[in-house]
Automatic annotation (TrEMBL):
Residues 126-249 form the NACHT domain. PANTHER family: NEPHROCYSTIN-3, TETRATRICOPEPTIDE REPEAT PROTEIN (AFU_ORTHOLOGUE AFUA_6G03870). PROSITE patterns: TPR (PS50005). Keywords: Repeat, TPR repeat. This is TPR-like protein. Transmembrane segments: none annotated. TPR repeats lie at residues 608-641. The lineage of its organism: Eukaryota, Fungi, Dikarya, Basidiomycota, Agaricomycotina. SMART domains: TPR.
Amino acid sequence: MQMDNFTSTSLLPQLSTCDSKMKKAIVTLKKLSLKNKRGEEATSMGHSFWQKAKNIRVKNSNITNIGGDLNQTNNYYGFDVTSFEGKKITPDMIASATPAVPIVFKGRGELVEQGVTVLCQQGPRFLAILGAGGMGKTSLALHIMNSALVKKKFAGRFYFIPCELFKDADSLIQGLIHVMKLTLHENQSKNEVLFDHLQAAHDDLLIIFDNFETPWNHSGSKMGVKYLIEKIAQYNVVSLIVTMRGSGGPSDIPWKKLGGKSGIPTLSPDAAKEAFKAFASDNLQNMGNYESEIDSLMNQLEYVPLAIRLSAQHVKRVSMKVLMRMWKTHKTSMLNEDGRELDRLTSVSFSIDLSIEVFRIRGNALRLLSAIAFLPDGVPMWSEHLGDIFMDKKEWDLEVSTLLDSSLIYDQYEGIKMLAPVREHIDLNHRIGQDDIDQLEKFYAQFLQNLSNNDMEAQPILKLHINNIEKIFKTQISGGHSKTSHISAVKIIIRFERFVSVSIGLMDLILQKDENIKEEDEVDLKLLRASALRWMGRFEDAEDEVMSVKECLNEEENISKSEADILGRCFDTLQNIYYVQDQYEKAINMNLQAEKYFKQSENQWAQANSMSQLGNIYYMQDRYKEASEMFSEAQQLFQQIGNELGVAECLQRLGDIYRMQNKYDVAIEMLSNAQKQFGSSGNQLRAAECLWSLGELYRKQEKYDEATEMILKAQKQFEEIGYKGVAWCLWTLGNIYRAQGQYAEAVDMFSKAQMQFQMIGRIVDAAWCYENLGNTHRHQGQYGKAEKVCTEALELLKGFPGEKYRIGWTLLEFGHLFFDMKDFVEARRKYEEARDTFDSHGQLEKEVDKCSEALAELNEAEATASISK
């Protein structure tokens, strides 16, 4: 008999009778179904029948199915849990969705300890493990659950709920009844079964809601889920762990959050490398050969656990070199697990897209997400800048809040940023629009114009944005979309030595792409580029760049002032190139040429600067008299034109001369005054140089605490600006340690200084470090090591015959070494060589006297040795 859609009112009396009989039949079936060996579990077919039939309403209803499909597979405990796809969730499916405790688990020991402490304490025990997708939240929860203390406390009463299977409170309750193996009796609701069980429980139990963002953010289910978890939390025996994407725990429960404000952090570099190697296992042969490649890849993945695991699988088939190339080309599309359906655990891209979907990132929120992905530095000081970046929308607080809640971005020092895997995926799949790039360019062009003229104030601010500026301007120049003057931007950025590589990159692109560049702008950029290349130690490239400008000019007497000024700048730049390579005679020649052309151009500042530069060359040659004269003349000219910075630089150099002449009081006064002037004007480099000179003064006076304080301050400032003066600070610290008999520390400092000098092409200074190492080894009685490094020093100095001071001191140290070794013949030879070298300089009388004293002491030693024989 066909009963579908049967609603005839003429049969209502019969149906009423049928309804009564049906209810009796259901009761009978229910009793039969409950009869098993324990008296508490239903058979699959019988329980399914009454479960599906008990809610049938015959009156005023469409009758479609009375007994249900007797051939279907039903869940064991007497009801159906339906997944998002409409599939019935069974205990086996829940078990399959529950992961094992991961074997590879690195760098999370401290977080595990914190979690265990929370669960084992008295009072509320509610633990929230929050953060972005792929951070290892589930792994952390499993390891906490698996700890010995937690196992002892809960004695097997763990209930793991993989929440990605459940969409609302009702399905969560059904899932809990499943994993707790509870029985649903007649006239009992699922809520009653669950909460009666929790009420009756006497022993502590632990419920883990994993991936809780799924039901929490499902449309229309939040309130029901909120009420459910709050009710569960009211039972004293219940402890909770919740893992979810986002930065805030669900509901108003007083969660103890692991990690920082944005959730659990990425791995440390060391832990990331350990994890990668563990995942790669035996597939990565000769691991030591790939250390730098692994470090680089981990850094580019920003130490995200899922990205590390998925990248390591490729080592089964390809080398590290190929893997690096794959990441560079394919980015997150390569971070998938082979042979498995893509999901949150097997694909970084899937995990990111899931967050976008779960948190409903749309409209302006997605637009902002795309902009943040485009910006390597994110948006520093976002509450201050976002309204100025996007002219069509001033308020972005709601969108930022949504993105932070999703953990697709995180906040750091009042800025908003994005982890590398997320950034690469968003940039590829939700690319920023050209209009927004144009607005970013205009914002940063104005940002640079607004920077303080005080470099010490401006640099920390610029540092937060420099990678954004580089990417935006390069994108606009390359694409021909420039809306502002990038030449003006470069001239601002090049003020800061720390960002010299950014300046060079932008200048290269402008010179290559801008076909309409003005001639004077091209000359400016080429000479600025040459100075930047010289700063980076690329001396040949720097010289070539200068010559490309110089060769286009006529060096005759009748040139214009502007041409003379350009020629003066060319020779001045060449002088600086030779100066830093210790080629002082060439530098002097270039300096004199520069000064001649600056006089023709009537550029007084450049003339004064040339005098000061010539003084620097004389100072490095230990020609202190000539140096002092040049600095004094330059100082007067700087004063005439009102250039306070130039006056301070001359004061600094005069102080250095007095320092070298052991006139400590006047040197300290001059250098202190200069340091204050540089500090007030924001010239961090010169201020740091003054601090180093003061440290050297205190060292010579054996005031080692004051010396160390000054040198460490100088070192910090040099590091902040990215200057090579750090090597000199290491050298001075080595001397301080040696003077106090701390030889191991001294050797460490001299060795580090030597390597830094060698890397930046300061060969003479590297040789000087070898001389100091020789002295230190000699004082330790390590004569073999001392002889080796002194020989190395002299070998390096062969290419710099004008370095009389350092060559003389190295020979003198060699003499001391042979004296201590009782090789008096060789000692005499070295002392005499040192004396002759100092004497040939003409202004090193004190050093000549030291050699004479050493020879006199040697004569006494030889006489004593002769008598004893």
